[in-house]
Design a protein that fits this description.
By secondary structure, the protein is an alpha+beta fold. It has 13 helices and 18 strands.
Length: 553
């Protein structure tokens, strides 16, 4: 279906259910890993072992996740992309990676020079975060970030025939490798130490001697996919007859229990300080503390060291007595996710049903009545959290509707409401994807309040107050009106852009001629090849063998 924004015009494929309704990230991810189901994936493979799916279907990504060699050249020609930040030119010579970026990180990559490196010097081109410039990848990632509730990113790797662009290494993100052109042979290696198991940071480049013989050898062909948990050591070479192009979709960078604890602990320390009757946490450190603490003093027998350790342990005990602020920490991380995430990819129908200041202040479409049904534009377009208690309570609604596709290009935005709006906002969020109106909220919450035996300091609001609350959200582009004369569910069919690529990195604003993407129906899957956990081949004194296909009926 056709959609247009700015100078660009492209055809895109959008997953719909049988009723024509827009589906969530689950639907896109399900198609990405089919025939493996989402529950099976998370139970068997996620963070545990690689998954290799061979489909025998070169057109599997057509129309919804396909990128071409010509697209890579066109993006570099159209946008001002600095080396390192957005473009890397690399090759592996005698087992060592060489980076041939044409200057420092401030230098803009010249498309012709980069493509000459590709054609003549055997160099791989890596486009970093191409979803910022390519709608087809933004429209792939934005819905999936709601499934993972973690930021999503992408890289494109274009490698000439018979070449290798990167030395063996592991990443700090879980990756899904989509082979969209040509073929590539992947070599997976056993961990070399415990740090490579679900690591927090990516590794340096390893030598072939360090990683040893591969445990698995896989040939990804066009239409195939390979999932690698973070920490799996890997390297890849294109085959000798044609260039290779794959898209790497990544997620779960620093999104662990450790990160939750790191966010939670400062809150616990602050709470312990406030509840400490002896003010132990407020007491200053001993004078000349650095005379007896630190690595230079670690072997000293100064008695002050033991006393300091005892005092610090008592302070830590007081912190650990504080009830775990799990919900407050979740709110903090969710608000951070709102700021870090991509803006939602909305349909042209949805955009027509949203607030538009260009219509004029008096436009009927920009004003909600008490009977106007609305819903959140997306499940994770916003996050509400309550701060304070009683009459001082405030409900903060952080959102990503004003985000750019360029990371943190604009300041974070949030709306603030009085505590009396908490029940109405909670009902709106809980109703998604169904529609609610100011009058419906007043009726439902008023009836619930009247029928409750519990004492409440906040009475239910009337329809005028709830409508004003919804109007504020509507003007912030968080809500979509229900289409006229339709049931309480919309039937979008076209993708459009919410925000264009950032202005400061555009080179040729009128040259957005990306090729059309043909709408595609799902193809039959011929086979799935699964990488089970296996004893390293090197440990058996063998060389790696291709993984045998497991055929599913």
């Amino acid at each position: 279906t056709q959609s247009t924004w700015g100078p660009h015009s492209l055809t895109v494929f959008l997953l719909m259910d049988q009723n024509g309704d827009l589906q969530s990230g689950e639907a896109i991810f399900a198609r990405l890993i089919e025939p493996v189901s989402i529950p099976e994936f998370f139970e068997t493979y996620w963070e545990k072992q690689p998954l290799y799916i061979s489909r025998g279907d070169a057109q599997h990504y057509d129309g919804w996740a396909d990128v071409t060699k010509e697209d890579v050249a066109a993006v570099m020609a159209q946008f001002e992309l600095p080396y390192k930040q957005h473009v890397d030119v690399t090759r592996v010579v005698d087992g060592v990676r060489e980076t041939l970026n044409g200057g420092g990180p401030e230098v803009i990559a010249d498309a012709d020079e980069v493509m000459q490196r590709f054609d003549n010097d055997g160099c791989t081109i890596r486009l970093v975060h191409p979803e910022r410039f390519m709608d087809v990848l933004w429209e792939l990632l934005a819905p999936m970030q709601e499934l993972f509730t973690s930021t999503m990113g992408a890289n494109i790797y274009l490698t000439p025939a018979g070449a290798q662009g990167f030395a063996p290494h592991y990443d700090d993100v879980d990756v899904f490798i989509l082979q969209v052109e040509g073929a590539k042979r992947w070599f997976l290696h056993a961990p070399i130490d415990d740090e490579s198991v679900l690591p927090r940071v990516s590794s340096r480049d390893f030598s072939q001697a360090e990683v040893g013989a591969p445990t698995h050898e896989i040939v990804l062909e066009q239409g195939d996919i390979l999932y690698l948990p973070r920490g799996v050591i890997h390297q890849a070479q294109s085959l000798g007859d044609k260039h290779s192009l794959h898209v790497t979709v990544s997620t779960y960078q620093k999104h662990t229990y450790m990160d939750f604890l790191l966010a939670m602990f400062p809150t616990m320390v602050a709470a312990a300080r406030a509840a400490d009757p002896a003010h132990a946490l407020r007491t200053g450190l001993p004078p000349q503390v650095y005379d007896f603490l630190g690595s230079a003093c670690s072997s000293a027998t100064d008695s002050r060291r033991a006393h300091f350790a005892q005092t610090l342990a008592a302070c830590l005990d007081s912190v650990l007595e504080i009830p775990l602020p799990i919900d407050a920490t979740a709110d903090e991380l969710a608000v951070r996710f709102m700021y870090d995430s991509l803006p939602p990819a909305l349909t042209t129908e949805e955009l027509a049903l949203m607030f538009d200041p260009e219509r004029g202040a008096d436009a009927a479409e920009n004003e909600l009545s008490a009977a106007t049904p609305v819903r959140l534009a997306r499940r994770y377009v916003a996050r509400m959290s309550v701060r304070g208690e009683g009459s001082d309570a405030q409900v903060v609604v952080a959102h990503n509707a004003s985000n750019s596709r360029y990371y943190h290009e604009f300041p974070a935005e949030a709306l603030s409401f009085g505590g009396e709006c908490e029940a109405g906002l909670a009902a709106l969020f809980a109703a998604f994807p169904d529609y609610v109106s100011g009058a419906a909220l007043a009726q439902a919450l008023g009836a619930a309040s009247a029928g409750s035996d519990a004492d409440s300091d906040v009475a239910a609001l009337d329809d005028e107050a709830y409508t004003a609350m919804l109007q504020s959200l509507y003007e912030a582009s968080l809500l979509v009106r229900a289409p006229p004369k339709t049931p309480m569910r919309s039937h979008p069919s076209k993708l459009g852009a919410l925000v264009p690529a950032p202005r400061e990195i555009k080179r040729k604003g009128d040259s957005g001629d990306r090729k059309g993407l043909e709408s595609a129906t799902a193809k039959s899957v011929k086979s799935a090849k699964t990488l089970a956990a296996a004893k390293p081949a090197a440990a058996r004194g063998e060389t790696a063998k291709p993984v045998k296909p497991v055929r599913r009926k």
